[in-house]
Amino acid sequence: MVKVQAIAESINIMGQRSGTAMKERNPGPIQEMAKEESAAGASFLDLNIGPARKDGTELMPWVVETVEAATDVPLCLDTTNAEAMAAGFKALKNKEGAIMNSISAQPERMEKLIPVAAEAGCYVIGLLWGAEGMPRDSNERAAMAVDLMMAMSEAGIPNEKILFDPIGTPITLGADQINSGLEFMSMLQEIAPGAGSTVGLSNVSNGVAEHLRKYLDRTYLIMLMKYGLTTAIVNSYDEELMAICKGERQELVDMVHGMMDGNDPDPAGLSGTALEHYKTYKVLSGRIVFSESWLDL
Ligand code: THG
Fewer CB atoms near the end CB (10 Å): N or C, the chain? Predict the structure, then answer.
């Protein structure tokens, strides 16, 4: 049983292998990655071409056709270029199963993309990012979610097709923003009954030394699961992270959720992954200030 549907993030204009292939319009490496991510258990493949100001309307359809020729796993089209998004949806074979990533609470983005999503019948990520940028707390996130939900509802998009993204922020900026994102998640079913959710887990470890990132991403996922996170944008090459998504690490989930309820297990009795999650939870919840030596403390 899949607990959290994984949206695999690695086909990405910034990535070494996929970025070069996109620029050269070389399908091979992208199709290989699509197969690897599918085999790892991804429920969706994110295709991130970035802002693509110059050639987005041509690049997105090319990437969509390239990946749909290699796998049947539904796609998640990721660009801030509204024209490229529309062009990508035109090219998609499986429109209804796809995700539009994303529509933010900025009026011009809503105007341009809500009609495209309504016509496609796809899932839509409602990104809680507004005219003034990043929301400051859970109340601002809630207000943006209501704006997005109302506008989508008017266009005939039901809550069941919306995945709200409270936006994960780097732990290097402190735990407060991470906490208010979690607080928003705990309010979501009251704000938008039936809606789903997603978070880009790698955001939380952005700027942290490469070999330490996976620990933050894994524990953050478990924390979000307490509030019913339905999907997550993940590095599908991390097998341990995928095992958490698949519901195969229940004992670790129980420990972290217990800590969120106020339990404080004796670390002397913990080892291996349990100890990693114990220490990382202390950092992500703000009980310990982040430094790159947190696992050695
Ligand atoms: N929410 C939503 N969409 C999103 C994000 C989000 N899309 C983009 C991003 N955040 C999620 N995608 C990625 C993709 C790659 C990485 C992080 C997030 C990443 N890549 C490695 C790096 O840059 O070091 C490796 C790159 C490589 O392959 O070389 O970290 O939050 N809705």
Answer: N
